[in-house]
Every structure is written in structure tokens, then in C-alpha cells.
Amino acid sequence: MSLFISKKDEFGARPKGRPHTDLLAEEVIRRKLLIDGDGMGDDRRLNMLLKVFLKWCTSNDDTEEEQAIIYERMVMTLEQCEFAISKSQQVLCMNQAEMKNYKQLYSEIEIGIANAQKKIVANKQELQKAKSIRKNKQEYDALAKVIGTQPDRRGSLSQLEALEREIRALDRARQALDSRLEQRRRQFHVLLSSVCELQQLLKDEENVESQGMDTT
């Protein structure tokens, strides 16, 4: 706004000499270069402002009232350009912040995927162990049946009881492993669902941001 104030004194007559005209024109051009048009007519607005300003500086036919009106229009146009600069800077800061958030989320997702892969490997190992225990239990059951067909002897009964205790212990261990495996499977399912939802959320935010930038 101070760009044009020195040109006239309360919209009075213009000074005969114009020693600052070139400086003012350079200032207008500098402001034009600083404003990066975002496709909404800022460049055209600056061109019109420069033409009106140069015409205003060189014209002697306009009345004082007309000069005041033209001056107010130039001030309004300049304020619009300054507002466009501020808006562009705010959008740039917002985009930088969003990029930082996206990078952080991407890093967190990568860490989550790596942890999920480790859990998958651990669950596979536990599953293999559970299968081995189940196979041993079947073998122990078959052996117990064979022992049960033998004559009733104290030693055989003692061994059978020991085997049954071992089988029960193995069965409890198998049940515990099955429970842990089911729990890990549910946790992994929840983790994968969270990762998919997070990826969809990021994609939706990018689409919304793209649509918002297109509409602006």
C-alpha cells in the first residue's frame, strides 16, 4: 500500500518532476516476480496493475476524482496480490508439514510391516512345534493302547501312568501353544487390518488434498 502513497498527496496534483517513477516501476516488477501465480490469474492481475500504474503516472487528462478512484483500484489489486502471496506461503507450509507427516507415517508403517513379518515367522515356528507335539501325542496314545493290552503288571501300570502324565503335560503344552497361536493369529489379523486402514486413510487424504488443490 505504501507503494503509491508517495505518488500523490491526498490525491492532489501530481508533482511536475518524477524522479521516483523508475523506482516505483521496478518495485512493481519486483512484486510481480515475487508473486508466483497459482493458476488463478495472479500474473494477469499484476500485468494489469503495472499497465494501470504506468498509465496513471503518465496521464494528465484524468480529474482528481478519477485519479483517486484509479488509485484505490490499484491499492485493492496490490492487496489482492499480497493476499495471494500470503496464501501461497501458507499452502507451502501446510504441504511441507503434510509431507513430514507422510514420511513419518510411512516409516511407522514400514516398522509395523517388519514387526508383522517377524511375528509371522515366530508363529510359523510355534505352529510347527505344535504339530510336532500333536504327532508325539498320537504316538503316545498308540503306545498307551498297546500297553493297555498287555497283562496287568505293577511295572506296566507304573509306566503307563507315567506315560499318561507325560501325555497330559504334552496336551496342556499343546493347548497352551494352540491358544498362543490363535492369539498371535488374531493379533496379526488386527495388525494387517490396521495397516490396510492406514494405507487407505493416507490414500484418501492424498485424494482430498489433490482435489482441494485442483479446486483452488
TrEMBL record:
<feature type="coiled-coil region">
    <location>
        <begin position="99"/>
        <end position="187"/>
    </location>
</feature>
<dbReference type="GO" id="GO:0034274">
    <property type="term" value="C:Atg12-Atg5-Atg16 complex"/>
</dbReference>
<dbReference type="GO" id="GO:0034045">
    <property type="term" value="C:phagophore assembly site membrane"/>
</dbReference>
<dbReference type="GO" id="GO:0000445">
    <property type="term" value="C:THO complex part of transcription export complex"/>
</dbReference>
<keyword id="KW-0175">Coiled coil</keyword>
<protein>
    <submittedName>
        <fullName>THO complex subunit, putative</fullName>
    </submittedName>
</protein>
<dbReference type="Pfam" id="PF05615">
    <property type="entry name" value="THOC7"/>
</dbReference>
<dbReference type="GO" id="GO:0000045">
    <property type="term" value="P:autophagosome assembly"/>
</dbReference>
<dbReference type="InterPro" id="IPR008501">
    <property type="entry name" value="THOC7/Mft1"/>
</dbReference>
<dbReference type="GO" id="GO:0043495">
    <property type="term" value="F:protein-membrane adaptor activity"/>
</dbReference>
<comment type="similarity">
    <text>Belongs to the THOC7 family.</text>
</comment>
<dbReference type="GO" id="GO:0006397">
    <property type="term" value="P:mRNA processing"/>
</dbReference>
<keyword id="KW-0539">Nucleus</keyword>
<dbReference type="GO" id="GO:0000421">
    <property type="term" value="C:autophagosome membrane"/>
</dbReference>
